[in-house]
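We emphasize that the prediction below concerns an isolated chain of 305 residues; any contacts that depend on oligomerization or on bound cofactors are therefore not represented. The input was used exactly as deposited, without trimming of termini.
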Amino acid sequence: MTQILDPRALRDAFGCFMTGVTVVTTLDVQGKPLGFTANSFSSVSLDPPLLLVSIANRSANLAQFCAAPAFAVNILAEAQKEISATFARAAEDRFADVYWRQGPTGSPLIAGVCAWFDCQMEQVIPAGDHTILLGRIAAFESSAHPGLGYYRGAYVTPAAIASQMPAGPDVVVSAIVQVGDAVLLVDDGRGGLSVPMARVGRDGVQAKLIRLFAELGVEAEPGSVYAVYEDARLGTQHIALRCPARAGRPAKGAFVDLSPQDMADVTDPALRSMLQRLAEESRMGNYGTYFGTHEQGRVHPPSGA
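Result of the prediction step, given as a token string:
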């Protein structure tokens, strides 16, 4: 038995499929530009290069498009919602406020789109209450502009939304490479000294530390967490680990005693404070773990202390 389908509900269900937004254009027999907004666009074939769009049979432009020898598909960019709206509603001249030029086949190409396809008409196919325009691509061009989306009857702009969302902090691992009472300090690139640091990527902290040790030319092991703090100035989250190492000459930097005069060239105040605490705790043999920000926080004593 054939089920009677609710057209409105069926349209809503089709709207669950997120699509791009296009403006399909052509010239009538007098050379006047015509266009309509469509999200019923699809690639069909690479060899030969074919695509299709569909136009409603009730469209005032149906006869002109079906008779046209060519048409173009303009994939709109996120900033072109107004162009989409213009070509979706009735207007005497939809091209009045739109900058466009003729493509290789003569069809109008709209400026600023993320891609356009200029097509020869391959076939016109009746399909229910719509007509499918099958085009053979004669020329095309794409750009870096993000595309305008359409979902459940509304426009969506994923790239614009993503750019406005606050990003999480970069995670930076600091290696306190220690031999006795000395730590490895390297040039911080600002005329001062720092412990070796690196941003943590997809491989994680341990893999980053192993690569960092190789670059430094030291034999060291990832040790206990010594500090976890957020630097609001730079938008970074720092994880500092004490990393015991074997004595030797590193390929980068030098081992420096944990004395006030030797720490004077450490330019970052938060790092200098951390190393001063390390010097005190090294003398006592008890190491706490700092949690907080680059300005203030709390040192948690070791278990059992």
